[in-house]
Amino acid sequence: MSAPSHDSSIETARVDRRAALSLVGYSFLILFIELAFIRYISAYVRVFGFYLNMVVIATFLGMGVGLLRSRDERRMRWIAPGALVLLFTAVKVWSNFIVRTQKDPNEHIWAIYGEMHGTWGKVGILPTVLVLFTLAALVMLPLGAAMGTLFRRFRPLTAYSLDIVGSLSGIGLFALLSAMRTVPWIWFTIAFLVWALLSLGTARYALAMAGAGVVAVALAAWTHGPNERWSPYYRINLIPIRYATSLHVNGSMHQWILDASPEGARTDSVLAGVRAAYLAPYKYAPRLDTVLVVGAGTGNDLANLLELGAKYVDAVEIDPTIVDIGRERHPRHPYADPRVHVTVNDARAFLRQTDRHYDAIVFGTLDSQTLLSGMGSLRLDNYVYTRESFDAARARLHPDGVMITYHMSQYPYIAAKIYQTLEGAFGRAPAVIRYKPWYLFNYTFVAGPSFDGAAITADSSVSELRMKVALPHDDWPYLYLRKHTVPTHYLTVLLGILLIAYAFIRVGAPHTLQGRGDWPMFFLGAGFLLVETKSVAEMSLLFGATWWVNVLVFASILVVILCANVLTATGHTPPRAARFAGLFVSLALAYLVPVRSLLWLGTTGQWLLGGLLVALPVLFAALIFAELFESRVDSSRALAFNVFGAVVGGVLEYLSMVTGTKALYLIAAAVYAAAFFALRRSEGTGAYAAPALRDAA
Asked: Nearest to residue 52, comparing CAs of 42, 60, 44?
């Protein structure tokens, strides 16, 4: 009688291992495809990238409904093939349209399509964002259903830990592919191969997924344009025009590679105009022995400085692919000159790390046209134009040095913000050069510790720049917002998103709206997304807004969650009241201690102390979640409410446009307080099940 029992236990172990690998695989797919969609969709449908965390919210919505419908996973899975084909078809179709940007007096969204040819017409922002959001959520729904089915095979914390391992694998592989500068069809080939392998248990479905994957990859390859490269930040296209090579990022003009030498300027009036505009501010520089250029791009500023006799130039550019293109394509070959020293890094990080002083610091039209991450509202260049950034630049100037800032300010209020922020940083008004006609920029500002711009610029030409505006600083780094507000077009899209979310839940999981909600898990999800978003912003200030810093932050958060699971599973955790107290105290510390107060520490000290300030709220929140999640009878339903809460957290994140980013900690504290009281209330109702009851069930 013992042999059958032994064989049965072996078979059970095999099934458990297979289920564990499948759960890791589906978790890997969810995060990997989410990261791929964040980059792919916004690269070809450019305005989608400015609607902050749409892919993240779509992922949570689709996954949440899938988790609730996990008992019906065999039917839910058939949504995937059609949703994949529809999404990739939609991206291909929309990539051929010009999406009309919203005319809002309170915000400017970059979209220069002047050199796009063969487009099919124009479409509005609202249908574009809502259709792509819906399709992305539909793709995630069957993945959530499959994951929910597997969650029920394990204790909740075991399942959640396997989920975190899969997520770490997804972010690790995508980071590697980004570092290798691979193109999207390679990402999706890997993803759909994994998805097909996970579907082998049902031959017909595996065949359908393989077919849908082939079509989706073919559409991604077809959407890939000529002369197209991918950097860790952008889709880059090179388009020859009469007088230059136009470099487009994510479908919009970003910079020109041109020959603005005296010889080149004689060949074309546009080149002559660009040359004159570039050289105009340098007459205010006493000398150019040592120069720093942040936003060096393909090398136009560098070529001009070398012509003017600069002896030492630090060239800082965040995108390694753009540097490579400059090396290959620039007609004046500035990157080949031994006087140029290249650093691929974030501008703020370099200003903080260098100990050199300069005769001139040049801010070379640093308009990033992409977001810092898919988790939040900050653009890659937001922290470049804050008061603290200009203070850092001033600290690196010689006493008679000058700071030259080129900028394309489409609205006068944007130029006014730069003008007034420079005035505050240097204690005197900068000189202003305004260009008509303009080419690559329409304003240049010149400031310095001992430079009096007011004596050079007539009052009549700067009167408009003294309008009342909200000035950007590290807590509210929104250069392109006129004031503390959420622009109307965001509110319209958010309303549409909430209606779509309601429809998803109403159709996909109607019982959710009728039964008792797991509100403690819901509020924990909302609070955690706010903390995670703010963590990315804080670490970007400390270590730079580079893609690898984002990768390290997200990976570190997942590791902290995994540690919290281990501590909870082994019983090495403080009482629940102490965990909530630790959470609120750590949120208060993170709110009260400004990041800039840590900058005097060395890199190691910044990582340790800065990382501790960021990690403590994550750790305490993860400990609270782990204990609560382990007690749930239905782990799939509990996780569904948690990710629905994250959807609401993603919407609340837009409030940072009004309150500033630091206030996200206060909003998170209020949400966690709601979780605490919801938990207290639910304990006496049976909604909060003890582990023994869960085991019996």
From this structure: 42
Q: What's the CA gap between 196 and 210, in Å, rounded? A: 6
Region 229-239 average pLDDT: 92
Q: How is residue 136 written in tokens?
A: 């992305």
3-state secondary structure of 517: coil
Q: Which two tokens stand for residue 234?
A: 């952008």
For 609-662, the pLDDT digits (tens) are: 777 888 899 999 999 999 999 988 888 889 999 999 999 999 999 999 999 999
**Dihedral angle, C-alpha 445, 447, 319, 115, nearest 10 °:** 10
- Residue 1: the pLDDT is 40
- Domains annotated for the chain, with CATH where assigned, are 16-227+483-696 (1.20.1250), 286-367+387-466 (3.40.50.150)
pLDDT score of 534:
85
Answer yes or no: is pLDDT of 548 > 60.
yes
pLDDT value at residue 53: 83
Q: Residue 470 to residues 12, 88, 102, 393: CA-CA distances in angstroms?
A: 63, 40, 21, 21
Residues 6+ apart with CB under 8 A from 198: 22, 25, 26, 29, 146
3-state secondary structure of 430: coil
CB 250 within 8 A of CB 202: no
Tokens of 391: 């203070």
SS3 of residue 408 by DSSP: coil
CB contact set of 328 (below 8 Å; sequence gap of 6+) = none
Residues 592-613 have pLDDT tens digits of: 987 667 666 666 666 677 778 8
Q: How many residues in total does the chain contain?
A: 697
20 Cβ contact partners less than 8 Å away, ≥ 6 residues apart: 154, 162
Alpha helices by DSSP H, 199-318? 203-223, 262-265, 269-279, 300-307
Q: Which helix (H) or strand (E) holds 420?
A: helix 412-426
From CA 295, how far away is CA 441, in angstroms rounded?
A: 14
Return the number of other C-beta atoms located less than 10 Å from residue 578's C-beta: 12
Tokens of 328: 């290959």
Burial of 8 (0-12, 13-18, 19+ CB in 10 A): exposed
Considering only CA atoms, give the Rg of the chain: 27
User: In terms of DSSP bridges, do strands 290-294 and 235-240 run parallel, antiparallel, or are they unpaired?
Assistant: unpaired
| Burial letters 495-529, b for 16+ CB under 10 A, else e | ebbeebbeebbeebbeebeeeebbbbbbbbbbbbb
